[in-house]
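User: Can you recover a sequence for this backbone? Please restate the input before giving your answer.

Assistant: Of course. Working from this structure:
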């Protein structure tokens, strides 16, 4: 009898199919054997896009016949759903946390007949949805009392005046809502947006809104009530994109000064024409001059024609046209003493802008405040449609690679590494010493230094504890495809794998999200902890020696590394 493939290998295959092959292949995997079913279902249904209401009805029928599918779905993206069909399927998705609705039409009568609340939904995104009034939006939000993030793009309201003195009937309790994103797009009437802004002010408490993201065309003045209402006590993170703004008079009627609690701000100016002397950049200087939060730690700046000219960010050379001396004056103000980073997004060579900043902003430049973030590529419309954020979703970083606090550090360190890279690009893929090292992910272990191996000489396979069973997939590939014949297992002192038991960790994870039935899957995970360090090394070596998937001619040794002295000793 042919021995079964290890579950690590089949999971890897299914992961590959999920990333690179059509989802029908996942369906075939689910029907192959019971062992493949969980992973195949997970990848096929965890994040789901449904293009029509007919497809939504078919999926509802599928869940009704196979209830185990429902708890797998965490994200649902539905196009043109009818309220009846949508609200009938949601009770079957108890783990749903993200819901995106496109081109939906909702009326009060559609929503009043449903009494169920969907408490697991944390993020709701509405794009081009048609609502007869803000009362209906309130009725819709009543179904999601656990909502933490609300994103609205090009909401279409009927031309019925909204009277702030008479709030929407059944006004929802949105006590957990902390993030609001509004993409105004090319809204046909500004009164729609103003009514929406007024509705938010009536609905949320002044200190509730922590993150506000606004994409605004033409006239930014209707935004001012939002800043006046939520700026003094809320708004920690502000993402502001202004496009087609060219009226200088508006600058005296629009201000960020009420936002005294800002920790981060991202400013994007969309220009209707390519860089040149006719482009008015004064808006950026005005907005930066209005920053007066003592908590501000990060400013992000971008000038682009992406939405209009499809050219992406300006070149760094063109960004020199800003009045950097004026910006430098603002950066030197004592109230901004906690500012740690000023990110500038652009493309092309950075040197011209670096020289400009060194001359115009010498203090900030010497502090290392400025970070150049190069644009890699602007996704095509097809890429944008298939991305996890959905088409047009107003996430500022959705159209770039994700940037974190460490991104700039990586780029800077890589530049130094490349300078001394030499001929390493010609190294062969198979490791020259035919050695695979299985060790822990612990950040204190520098395997290259403590063992004296160099790039290209050995595979280093790392996981929590350096457990051989957890490394089997990599070991098979290392030996069968890349020619390694020696395995060194290296564990270390003061390892975290000695500090817990699997039942304790399972309980901790389940207690962190008790309302989510999908978290129960942690009961299927063995975290492979150990209590005796030396014995753990011996057990791993013994397991590898008898495993039929490990080549019988392999030389296998076991070691313990002392994190306090830097010494290693051989156990096996």
């Amino acid at each position: 009898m042919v021995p079964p493939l290890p579950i690590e290998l089949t999971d890897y295959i299914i992961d590959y199919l999920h990333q690179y092959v059509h989802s029908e292949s996942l369906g075939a995997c689910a029907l192959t054997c019971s062992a493949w079913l969980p992973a195949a279902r997970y990848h096929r249904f965890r994040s789901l896009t449904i293009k029509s209401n007919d497809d939504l009805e078919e999926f509802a029928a599928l869940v009704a016949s196979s209830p185990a599918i429902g708890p797998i779905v965490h994200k649902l993206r539905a196009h043109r759903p009818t309220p009846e069909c949508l609200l009938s399927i949601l009770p079957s998705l108890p783990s749903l946390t993200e819901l995106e609705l496109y081109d939906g039409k909702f009326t009060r009568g559609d929503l009043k007949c449903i009494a169920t609340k969907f408490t697991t939904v944390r993020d709701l995104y509405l794009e081009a949805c048609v609502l007869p009034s803000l009362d209906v939006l309130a009725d819709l939000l009543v179904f999601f009392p656990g909502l933490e993030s609300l994103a609205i793009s090009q909401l279409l309201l009927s031309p019925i005046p909204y009277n702030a003195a008479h709030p929407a009937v059944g006004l929802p309790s949105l006590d957990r809502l902390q993030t609001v994103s509004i993409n105004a797009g090319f809204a046909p009437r500004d009164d729609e947006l103003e009514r929406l802004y007024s509705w938010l002010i009536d609905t949320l408490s002044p200190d509730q809104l922590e993150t506000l993201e606004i994409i605004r065309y033409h006239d930014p003045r209707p935004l001012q009530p939002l800043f006046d209402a939520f700026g003094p006590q809320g708004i920690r993170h502000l993402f502001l994109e202004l496009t087609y703004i060219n009226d200088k008079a508006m600058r005296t009627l629009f201000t960020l000064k009420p936002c005294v609690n800002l920790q981060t701000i991202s400013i994007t100016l969309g220009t209707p024409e390519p860089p040149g002397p006719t482009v008015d950049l004064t808006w950026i200087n005005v907005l930066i001059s209005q920053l007066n939060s003592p908590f501000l730690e990060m400013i992000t700046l971008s000038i682009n024609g992406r939405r209009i000219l499809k050219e992406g960010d300006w070149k760094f050379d063109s960004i020199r046209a800003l009045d950097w001396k004026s910006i430098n004056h603002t950066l030197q103000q004592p109230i901004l003493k906690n500012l740690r980073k000023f990110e500038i997004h652009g493309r092309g060579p950075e040197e011209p802008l670096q020289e400009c900043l060194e001359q115009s902003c010498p203090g900030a430049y010497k502090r290392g405040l400025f970070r150049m973030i190069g644009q890699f590529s602007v996704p095509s419309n097809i890429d944008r449609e298939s991305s996890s954020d959905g088409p047009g979703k107003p996430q500022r970083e959705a159209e770039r690679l994700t940037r974190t606090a460490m991104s700039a550090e990586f780029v800077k360190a890589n530049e130094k590494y490349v300078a001394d890279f030499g001929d390493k690009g010609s190294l062969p893929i198979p490791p020259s010493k035919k050695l695979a090292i299985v060790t822990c992910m612990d950040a204190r272990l520098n395997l290259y230094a403590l063992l004296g191996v160099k790039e290209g000489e050995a595979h280093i396979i790392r996981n929590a504890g350096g457990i051989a069973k957890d490394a089997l997939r990599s070991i098979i590939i290392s030996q069968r495809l890349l020619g390694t014949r020696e395995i060194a297992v290296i564990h270390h002192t003061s390892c975290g794998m000695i500090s817990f038991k699997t039942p304790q960790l399972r309980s901790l994870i389940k207690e962190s999200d008790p309302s989510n039935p999908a978290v129960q899957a942690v009961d299927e995970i063995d975290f492979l902890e150990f209590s005796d360090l030396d014995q753990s090394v011996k057990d791993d070596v013994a397991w590898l020696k008898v495993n039929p998937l490990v080549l019988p001619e392999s030389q296998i040794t076991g070691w313990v590394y002392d994190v306090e002295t830097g010494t290693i000793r051989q156990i096996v």
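That completes the design. Residues 424-570 form a domain with the Beta-carbonic Anhydrase; Chain A fold (CATH 3.40.1050.10).
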